[in-house]
Amino acid sequence: MELLKKWSDQYIEAGCDEVGRGCLSGPVVAAAVIIDESFRQNLIDDSKKLTFQTRLGLDEYIKNNVKEYAIAELPPQHIDKHNILNASIHAMHLALDQLTVRPELILVDGNRFHPYSFIPHQCIIKGDEKLLSIAAASILAKNYRDRLMIKLHDEFPQYGWNTNMGYATKMHRNALNEFGPTIHHRRSFRLDYSISEE
Hints:
The chain is α/β, with parallel strands linked by helices. It is built from six helices and five strands; from the N terminus they run E-E-H-E-H-H-E-E-H-H-H.
């Protein structure tokens, strides 16, 4: 595996990523991470490529060794009102708001972002596979959201959120047809799947 690196050593860069855009339930979660030249961790990669246990093991390492990090979430009601793209970008803005170190460059996973506080930004498709700060942000955001969905599973076990994390698996869709949506479901998303649909 090729080791991920910083974009440049000339700037204080904040990597941003979000998790949960395609889910039927739960919040969208974003993280912002600032690393410095001394930060090294060979296992850090796009969170989707890592096992649950590997991600959890990296969580504390990232939090204890980066210059700064922040995590923010927005609930389904905000997603329904403003759409998932705007909610995802706003969640990244909220994470950036929490940083006490002002970045000089914002690196964003994907191809869409709204300007933030007159700080230059760069959108990078598959940035979580290419840049260390974005990959670290993806890990923190995914771990945070997975823990939240596992906790919500205790309240609504019939939807299987402890394994599907709110994504549209067959079990989740069948449960929606049988029990209907909860307060944690996104009403602006298509929720009326046929039970027989694959």
